[in-house]
Write a structure and sequence with these properties.
This protein is an alpha+beta fold and 144 residues long. The chain contains 3 helices and 5 strands. The two termini are 28 Å apart.
Length: 144
């Protein structure tokens, strides 16, 4: 993707204005233009990666450390009781540039935990089949 096509790349390059709350050599964080609550921050890698699955491993540690830093800062700044941390990968991702939502939370704030209905397993056998399939895929990925 050309940087001119990505609003978050444009923000990272300072070609578009944003309410920046933090930046370092690898990442930039700014207020969400359509916040769930005041203090809702988006943390993005400066370099363009569509999803978390594309983020190089050498950046995962710093992105998670920055998420912790920003969660603490958001909670303190807006006197929140906690935070909701979320990443969408393609589905529900309105800007196709990896971004981590750091959303301040308070008890009885109106958000209902997860925003979608829960889908229980049909039975224990169905649960075990899914568990087994995921474990097999993890082993394949780890073994190359």
């Amino acid at each position: 993707m050309e940087n001119g096509e990505c609003i978050f790349c444009e923000i990272a390059e300072k070609n578009l204005p944003a309410e920046i709350v933090y930046e370092d050599s690898d990442a930039i964080a700014f207020l969400d233009d359509r916040p769930l609550f005041p203090g809702h921050v988006l943390l993005c890698p400066r370099e363009h990666y569509d999803t978390l699955l594309e983020l190089p491993q050498h950046l995962t540690g710093s992105m998670l450390a920055n998420t912790q830093l920003l969660a603490r800062a958001v909670e303190a700044a807006v006197d929140a009781e906690g935070t909701f941390i979320a990443i969408n990968n393609r589905v529900s991702q309105t800007v196709p540039h990896l971004h981590i939502h750091i959303v301040p939370r308070r008890r009885r704030d109106g958000l209902k935990g997860f925003f979608w209905p829960r889908q229980p397993y049909k039975d224990d056998a169905a649960k075990e089949a899914v568990r087994d399939a995921i474990e097999r895929e993890v082993r394949k990925l780890l073994n190359g």
